[in-house]
Write a structure and sequence with these properties.
three-stranded antiparallel beta sheet, globular, six-stranded antiparallel beta sheet, single chain, about 200 residues
């Protein structure tokens, strides 16, 4: 091959990559939304067997995770629903390169296997506006949130980091619906929860 032919092949490959990379990012975004939909369904199925309450509303002694998630132990909230989730692989966002997907719940042992937060105060689906779960790439005043329990007031300057979905993120609500949001819509949805403070447990 001549130098010109090599250059043509490389240019062609670059054009093909430029055409398909945006579609790959879109596919990952859709996969994340689908993950959260499955998580929302698992919450609702679990609630169906537990007096219409999510794990955040049932004490540990009764098989829930209320006391643990209130301290920021978000992992336990999802472990309680292992039968309903069927696989822990859906608990990692495809764009979250900092996390490792666990293939089995026996391997689901740390926050490194989890991308999504849990809404501590969303104990049932009575108020569909409350945050059930969502992407954990929040930042406050430009600083990424740390693992554990976080209380957000309606006027907290919250935004999405660039770590996933290019300053966007997905929210799952108490009724199991999922919404992709930018920073402005995130702030709006935080105000619409009708809670003075929103307690969220981050991995």
């Amino acid at each position: 091959m001549t130098l010109f032919e090599v250059a043509v092949v490389i240019a062609t490959l670059l054009i093909v990559a430029a055409l398909f990379l945006p579609r790959l990012a879109e596919t990952r975004r859709i996969d994340c939304v689908n993950n959260l939909r499955q998580v929302g369904i698992a919450f609702r199925v679990w609630a169906g067997d537990n007096n219409d309450e999510y794990p955040m509303g049932i004490s540990v002694t009764n098989g829930g995770a209320m006391e643990l998630v209130a301290t920021g132990n978000v992992l336990q909230c999802f472990l309680v629903m292992s039968n309903e989730l069927s696989t822990p692989r859906i608990l990692v966002c495809p764009e979250d390169i900092a996390r490792v997907r666990a293939n089995y719940f026996s391997d689901f042992v740390s926050n490194s296997n989890l991308s999504y937060f849990a809404g501590v105060d969303t104990t049932n689906d009575v108020d569909s506006r409350r945050f059930l779960s969502g992407d954990g790439n929040f930042e406050i005043s430009g600083v990424s949130v740390k693992p554990g329990l976080l209380s957000l007031w309606t006027n907290t300057p919250v935004a999405w980091t660039a770590a996933r979905h290019s300053h966007h993120g997905n929210l799952s609500f108490a009724d199991g619906s999922v919404l992709e949001t930018g920073d402005k819509l995130l702030t709006q949805k935080l105000e619409e929860t009708d809670l003075a403070t929103n307690r969220l447990a981050f991995p």
